[in-house]
Amino acid sequence: MDLHKNIVENKEEFYNLAIQYYNNIEDEFKEADSIIPKSISIVVDHEFIPTPCIKIKLELYSQDQQKKTGNYYLYLDMAKHFIDEFLT
Predict the structure, then answer these.
(1) Distance in angstroms (rounded) separating the CA atoms of residues 16 and 87
(2) Which member of 8, 17, 25, 45 has the greatest number of CB atoms within 10 A?
(3) Over the stretch 12-42, which tens digit does the pLDDT of each residue have?
(4) CB-based burial label for 56 (10 Å; 0-12, 13-18, 19+)
(5) CB proximity list for 60: less than 8 A, separation 6 or greater
(6) CB contact at 8 A, 53 and 76
(7) Model confidence pLDDT, tens digit, residues 56-88
(8) pLDDT at residue 1 greater than cutoff 60
(9) From CA 66, how far away is CA 80, in angstroms rounded?
(10) What is the pLDDT of residue 65?
(11) Contacting residues for 84 by C-beta, under 8 A, at least 6 apart
């Protein structure tokens, strides 16, 4: 329960951390002009990601075309250390 409370109380910090990681991706892979924080989840079981962990989802949009261009997922361990990231 403490983890849940920590995430709720510090959700902006988690979203900002995900945005920082996204901004570190090489420009050739980025297509978004606008980033919208979407969700934060606690992952209990996953096929290939060490668990438990925190999953942060950002939606990516193109301002030129006003449409969604993809999603960015950041996985962190309970100490907020990087585990993995996916750009879809």
Answers:
(1) 17
(2) 17
(3) 999 999 999 999 998 888 878 889 999 999 9
(4) buried
(5) 31, 32, 34, 35, 36, 68, 69, 70, 71, 72
(6) yes
(7) 999 999 877 678 889 999 999 989 999 999 998
(8) no
(9) 32
(10) 63
(11) 49, 75
Tally the domains of the chain: 1
Task: Give the relative orientation of helices 11-23 and 2-9 as an angle to the nearest 10 degrees.
Answer: 70
- Quick check: bond before 37 cis, omega within 30? no
The domain containing residue 18 runs over which residues?
2-87
Residue pointed to by tokens 């979407």: 38
Classified as helix, coil or strand, 72 is strand
Yes or no: say if 54 and 60 are a contact pair by the CB < 8 Å rule. Answer: no
Site of tokens 């924080």: 37
22 with 36: CB under 8 angstroms? no
Residue type, 74: L
| Token pair belonging to 41 | 């989840």
